[in-house]
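Hello Y.,

Per our agreement to keep a running log of every chain we model this quarter, I'm adding this entry. I've kept the format consistent with earlier entries: sequence first, then predicted structure.
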Amino acid sequence: MAARRLRRRLKKRTRKRLQVWGAAAVVIAVLWIAGNWSRVWPVLVAVLTTAVLGGASWALLRAHHRAVGQDLAWRAQEEARARELSMAQVDALTWQEFEVYVAELCRRDGCRGVVVSGKSGDLGADVVGYLADGRKLVIQCKKYAVHRSVSSQDMQKFVGTARLEHGADVALFVTTCRAFTKGALGLALRQDIVALHRDLLGSWVKGAHLESLIPLNGSGGGTRQRR
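Predicted structure for the entry above:
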């Protein structure tokens, strides 16, 4: 108990001394400022001006970033809406017409020797052609409902035939549905199959060049996942 009381007294004394020293420091500072006011006030004005300008600049910058973010979000929504409008005509096609339409997109982007299989038993090669640089292009087309996903089984079949059976340099899996399953996309990335889901197909339909879509490979976000 005695030790605790002693510690409390020491703490009180320390606090009092600090308060006295702090008050003395304030008084000395005030006296010094008063005695050197002619030299101090320009510095104070400069500091206050800098603080005001800095605060205003920060507020303007924050407002600018907010406006840019809102504009980017609006643009993304408009692009998605435009893709869906362009995809409405694609959704109305039969699966045979869809294969022909994909072949037309390839020809539009400079592919040569584009041929449509148009039959069952094609071993995944619905459309075959050559890119402008001479690489062989083999495309699997899946006309699926929007809510469906391309399964790992679908991708496995294409992986097994695209290069071994058809000698593809570039293998493209195009679908009208929104997504590939995690297993299907992972397999596509590991086997260097270009996965073109609905959003990327919509960009292709709107005019994006095939060569610019190949590096996106299923992401739709502009970055390709590396193996």
